[in-house]
Amino acid sequence: MQDSAARGLRDRGVRPDERVALVLRDSPRFIAAFLGAAKIGAIPVPLSTLARPDDLDFMLRDCGATLTITDADAGLFAGRPDPVAAAPTREDDMCFWQYSSGTTGAPKAVVHLHRRALFPAEGHGRHVARIGPDDRVYSTAKLFFSYGLNNSMVIPLAAGATVVLDPERFNAQRAWRLIAAERPTVLYSVPTAYATLLAAAEAGEPADTASLRACISAGEALPAPLAERWHRRFGLAILDGIGSTEIGYIAISNTADDVTPGSSGRLIPGYEARVVAADGADAAEGTLWVRGGSTAARYHDRPDATAAAFREGWVVTGDRYRVENGRYYHLGRDDDMLRVGAQWVSPLEVESVLLSHPSVAECAVVGRADGDGLLNVCAYVVLGDATPPSELEELCAERLARHKRPRWILPVAELPKTATGKIQRFRLREKARA
Ligand code: 3UK
User: Fold this and answer.
1) CA 434 – ligand 1 centroid, Å
2) Cα 245 to ligand 1 centroid, rounded to whole Å
3) Which tens digit of pLDDT belongs to each residue from 335-348?
4) Contacts of 317 (CB under 8 A, 6+ apart)
5) Which residues contact 152 (CB under 8 A, 6 or more apart)?
6) pTM of the model
7) Which residue range is the domain that position 132 belongs to?
8) Residue in 339, 345, 346 to alter for ligand 1 test, most ligand atoms within 8 A of Cβ
9) Looking at residue 389, what is its pLDDT?
10) 339 CA to middle of ligand 1, Å?
11) Is residue 326 located within the same domain as residue 358?
C-alpha cells in the first residue's frame, strides 16, 4: 500500500521536498500515505482531523502543500503493486513536518530531519516500552500527533510489532472493548484518558487488562494519585515521560524497574538535558533544554520562534523542572500556556472569545485541577449584567475546539490586579485551588 501511495503521489506530480498534507484518521492508509510520501522524498505533513476549518486552512497555506490526502481519497491506495525505488535522500534532508500550537499565536510547522526520524524506536522504544516483534501496541493518541505517530508507526514498525489502529475518537467504553478484543500488550495514552478509563472501570465497565504488560503516559504530568489508583486496581505501573513535538518524542521517562510517581523519570540514552536558570546557568531548578535523539531542526518560516526554541541543537521546552539525583520533576510552565487533556490551551485565546460577548466586561482564564489532579480550563468573568453562564458556554462551544472550552465559568465581582492594572493570574490560580 505504501508503494501504491508513492506511485500515486508521483503520478499526480508530487516532487521531492514538496509537502503532502495528510488529513487522515488512524488506519493503514495513514501509514501508507506517510511512508509513500517519504519514499519519493516528499514531506508528509499530518494535520489534525479534528482541527477547525480556519486552523486547517492556515496550516495548509503555511506548509504550501502541493496535495492534500483525505479519507475520501481511495484511489491513491488502490492497485499499482510494483515497488518504487526510494528517493536518494540524505541524513540532513527534511523528512516530515508536524504542527505545534505551543505558544501563543498561529501554529508552527516543526521540521524533522531523516537522521533523527527513527530515533524514538532506539530511545524510548528500546529502553522504556521495550517493544519487540511479539508486541501488539495500542495508542489512544492518534497518528497525527507526534506522540501517536511514534507510538503507532515508527516504534512498532521498527520493531516488527503489531499495531491496533482505531479511526474513531477515543472514549472509555470503546477503548475497553477494543483492549478486550484486540489484546494489546502495550497501552500508550495520556493522563486524562487514563483517568477516564479508570473511572469507567470503577463505574462497572468491563475492564480486561490481562493482555497488557506496560502502560505508557505522556502529554501532561501524570498525577501520582492517579497512577497509584491505576496500579492498585490493575497491578500495572504507568510509565510517565516527557516529550514534545520539537523534541520529536519522549526524552525523559520512568522505566519498569525505576518508577517514581510524581516524577517524569530519568534521561533516556541518546538525549542530553540541561536545567537552565533565569541567569543562563545550569541549576537544580529552571527551564528544561533537551538535545540529541529525535530533536527537530527548526520551525518552518519562523526565524524568531526558531531562535527562541532551538539553540545550538538544544530544544528550549518552556517547561520548568527540578532535577534531583538524575530524576526530573515537572513544576509547570514558564509561560501561561495550559496543558488540558495533553493538548495546548492558550488562556488568551479563550479570554478573547469570552470578551467578544457584550456582557463580559473582563475575564481571566487559568488552569484548575479536577479531582484527579488534572488541569482543566477555568474562566473568571466580570459580567456587566445578569447573563447566564450557559450563554457563555454556548459561545465557547461555537468558537473553541472541545479541549479549550472552560470546564468552569465563574462570575466574580472583580479580578485581582497589580497597582499597574495587570491581572494577577497567580492569585486566580490560588483561588482556583481553594
Ligand atoms: C507537556 C508534559 C509534564 C510539556 C508529546 C510525548 O505532548 C507532546 O508534545 P506537544 O508538543 O506538547 C509538549 C508539552 O507538553 N508535557 C508533555 N509530556 C509531559 N508535561 N509531564 C509530561 N510527561 O509542557 C511539553 O512542553 O503536544 C509527548 C511524545 C511526543 C510529544 N510530541
Assistant:
1) 27
2) 7
3) 999 999 999 999 99
4) 242, 244, 246, 247, 287, 288, 289, 290
5) 26, 31, 137, 139, 143, 163, 165, 188
6) 0.97
7) 2-331
8) 339
9) 86
10) 8
11) no
- pLDDT tens-digit map of 36-92: 999 999 999 999 999 889 899 999 999 999 999 999 998 888 876 688 999 999 999
Tell me, yes or no, whether 318 and 351 share the same domain: no
**Same-domain check for residues 346 and 406:** yes
Tell how many helices (H) and how many strands (E) occur in the chain: 15, 23
* C-alpha–C-alpha distance, residues 322 and 332, integer Å: 10
Q: How far is the CA of 164 from the centre of ligand 1 (A)?
A: 23
* Closest C-alpha residue for ligand 1 atom 23: 242
Q: Which residues' Cβ are closer than 6 Å to ligand 1? A: 100, 146-147, 218-221, 240-245, 249-250, 264, 317, 319, 330, 333, 339, 342
Q: What's the structural domain count of the chain? A: 2
Residue 79: CATH number of its domain = 3.40.50.12780
315 and 348 assigned to the same domain: no
- Identify the residue whose C-alpha is closest to ligand 1 atom 20: 220
The preferred substitution site among 97, 143, 220 for testing ligand 1, maximizing ligand atoms within 8 Å of CB, is 220
Task: Give the pLDDT score at 101.
Answer: 81
CA distances from residue 339 to 175, 267, 322, 336 in whole angstroms, order as listed: 23, 22, 19, 10
Q: Does residue 395 come out as left (phi exceeding 0), alpha (psi in the -120 to 50 range) or beta?
A: alpha
Instruction: Report, as ranges of residue numbers, the positions in the chain whose pLDDT lies below 50.
Output: none
Same domain, 370 and 270: no
Residue whose CB lies within 8 A of the most ligand 1 atoms, among 146, 154, 192, 244, for a mutation test: 244
Give the Å distance between the CA of 42 and the centre of ligand 1.
27
